[in-house]
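User: quick one - fold this with glutathione bound?
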Amino acid sequence: MITLHHLNFSRSSRVLWLLEELGLKYNLVKYERNERFRAPPELAKVHPLGKAPVIQDGDLILAESAVILNYINAKYGEGRLAPAPGTREHDLHEEWLQYVESSAAFPIMLKLIGGMTGGLTEGLDRFTGPSISKTLDYVAAGVGQGPYLLGEIFSLADIQFSYLLEMAAHGGLLAKYPALTTYLEQLKSRPAFVRAVEIGGPMTPPKA
Ligand SMILES: N[C@@H](CCC(=O)N[C@@H](CS)C(=O)NCC(=O)O)C(=O)O
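Assistant: Sure. Structure tokens for the protein plus glutathione:
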């Protein structure tokens, strides 16, 4: 059975949501962020990076949320939350799935972490501003009429985007993006998402 190492207010909410979405049985080990919003040292005993999410399945230990989502969906979800491998749709879905952490997260998280740690320098602010606009414009165009990234088909890419968009909303970055706000609300209204929040808490901390 899968064990999910879950940190409060973190990307491991994605994995918890997927486990609930697929109706799987799992063990949950919870960790609490410290006063500097960092993971506690116990998490580094599970994986050297000491970050969440991490899963254990038998003797396999995996970090990186996109990899974990793909692994669980393929091994325990009959692949039903992604287009079939070998198809064009599969590659386009994979592009969205990987884009979230590989590119989209960087300027958004830089801006938000900057805000949490005393503010960005003027130079960094000039860098992140256009990058965030380009990122959010791109995702909004991708979602189009929605309700999901793949139209009517809910997929792993939606789960992967949820944390980043929730963080963006928390930082006030979605104000000019009503379509992304609607998309995020659609995601958060799924019963499995609601269950995941009941079990593991919200993705973002209460506003200061
Ligand atoms: N790219 C990784 C990022 C993992 C990551 O940065 N996790 C954060 C939580 S959202 C973490 O554990 N931070 C605690 C710390 O660095 O102390 C993924 O998608 O899984």
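One thing worth noting: The pocket of glutathione is lined by residues 7, 10-11, 38-39, 51-53, 64-65, 101 (CB under 6 Å).
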